[in-house]
Amino acid sequence: xxxxxxxxxxxxxxxxxxxxxxxxxxxxxxxxxxxxxxxxxxxxxxxxxxxxxxxxxxxxxxxxxxxxxxxxxxxxxxxxxxxxxxxxxxxxxxxxxxxxxxxxxxxxxxxxxxxxxxxxxxxxxxxxxxxxxxxxxxxxxxxxxxxxxxxxxxxxxxxxxxxxxxxxxxxxxxxxxxxxxxxxxxxxxxxxxxxxxxxxxxxxxxxxxxxxxxxxxxxxxxxxxxxxxxxxxxxxxxxxxxx
Length: 243
Known about the structure:
Blueprint: E1 3-8, H1 13-22, E2 28-38, E3 43-44, H2 51-61, E4 65-70, H3 76-92, E5 97-99, H4 106-116, E6 122-124, H5 132-142, E7 145-151, H6 167-172, E8 186-192, E9 202-210, E10 213-220
Parallel strand pairs: 1-2, 1-5, 2-4, 5-6
Antiparallel strand pairs: 2-3, 7-8, 7-10, 9-10
């Protein structure tokens, strides 16, 4: 019988591509998408994407969403406690492993492996070691469509917030920036691609600076065009905080 696994899901391009790869393995059965949400804002931790958009991704992927609420602020101890609870629930559901979309950061992989020790869940890294330039181009060729939702302005210009993840963006990235943003230069939200049964209509919201990062908010747009942006949406606007 196939091994039942979950996929750690931020809503970004790497986990979305991992979903595509995992579904091509007949020895694996995907049982759900595991996502951490900031309790105070009801958004994906770090990416700041609204829960309803992630729920729409899960529906388009045909998989249940396993939300893990995190307190705000959240230290490592609180994070690890909540994740241990999620791991216990996964084992009770006969899930045997958790897959991650990590690409090459050894310290991140080692941390995940340590956290799963003794849980009965095996860590899987289906994209590990793939050249990120080739990977980014393969994503774009496949029809994957995504927007950049979070920028670390210490590593990349805030002007990239909200931009489409496409060939033009790759051409504009400074040479020191990883094409997949693996060192935290940027995070993304996928709204269409071969891993989904249908595109997710979105519209561009405000661009904000908070806690040292620049966030491009995305709004659900029921019945709208996937990826649509209102007039003037490309111009960053500064407001106090997302709520």
